[in-house]
Write a structure and sequence with these properties.
single chain, about 150 residues, alpha+beta, 60s Ribosomal Protein L30, Chain: A, 6 strands
Length: about 150
């Protein structure tokens, strides 16, 4: 079952959620949006800092942290944005960094915004797999029980 997580970030009345959690996995998108709903359209470094800060807040609201993020899709409107975003990235995320794909697009849905991040996080994993992953690993390592038939 999926549940929406309230983040306090404006959705401009649009029919979407910033954060959805299902079976301990958090699906989220983060943009350089101020809490009052206005977009940050200034320098890309400022946008990156705000978007990654929003991502951290979203994950915290869902019960996780930046350490739980395993994969990210980064959409940028200019190849020149990649290096400044990467510099902010290395401060925002702990090692090991999440897997990341960067896609250059013509524009983002909000005029003047140069980036948006989509992230998947395994809540509570902290880069170590979390309870569910550890339980699955233990189960996979257990030898199969021998079945014996008892005669009655």
């Amino acid at each position: 079952m999926k549940r929406a997580v309230e983040t306090g970030i404006s959705k401009h009345g649009r029919p979407f959620e910033w954060v959805i959690v299902s079976n301990g996995i958090c699906y989220t998108a983060a943009a350089p949006m101020h809490a009052n709903g206005t977009p940050e359209t200034g320098p890309i470094r400022t946008q990156a800092r705000l978007a990654l800060g929003n991502l951290a807040k979203q994950l915290k609201a869902a019960g996780g942290s930046m350490a739980d993020v395993v994969q990210v899709m980064l959409y940028v409107t200019d190849r020149g944005h990649i290096d400044p975003i990467t510099e902010e990235w290395s401060v925002a995320f702990p090692k090991p960094y999440p897997n990341r794909a960067t896609v250059i697009v013509k524009e983002i849905g909000v005029r003047g915004v140069g980036m948006v991040v989509m992230a998947t996080a395994h809540l509570g994993a902290g880069g170590k797999g979390g309870k569910a992953a550890r339980a699955a690993t233990r189960t996979a390592k257990r030898p199969a029980k021998k079945r014996t038939s008892k005669k009655r």
